[in-house]
Specification:
1 helix, mainly alpha, 0% strand
């Protein structure tokens, strides 16, 4: 069975639109999930990052 070229073009364009829509949904979902994650504490010079970092600057000095 031969398909008309206009029909094939319409089917290809429909499929392309479906793929673009699906990719946009995935992008929106990923950005929404990324926005809900808590922000990470970045390391300050001389201190480790995280909740276990010591507030004392002397705790970072290497042993001699």
């Amino acid at each position: 069975m031969m398909m008309h070229s206009d029909l094939m073009l319409a089917l290809a364009n429909d499929r392309r639109r479906e793929l673009i829509t699906e990719a946009e949904r995935a992008h929106v979902l990923a950005s929404a999930l990324r926005g809900r994650r808590p922000k990470k504490d970045f390391a300050v010079r001389g201190q480790r990052a995280g909740s276990l970092a010591s507030p004392k600057p002397g705790a970072v000095v290497p042993a001699r």
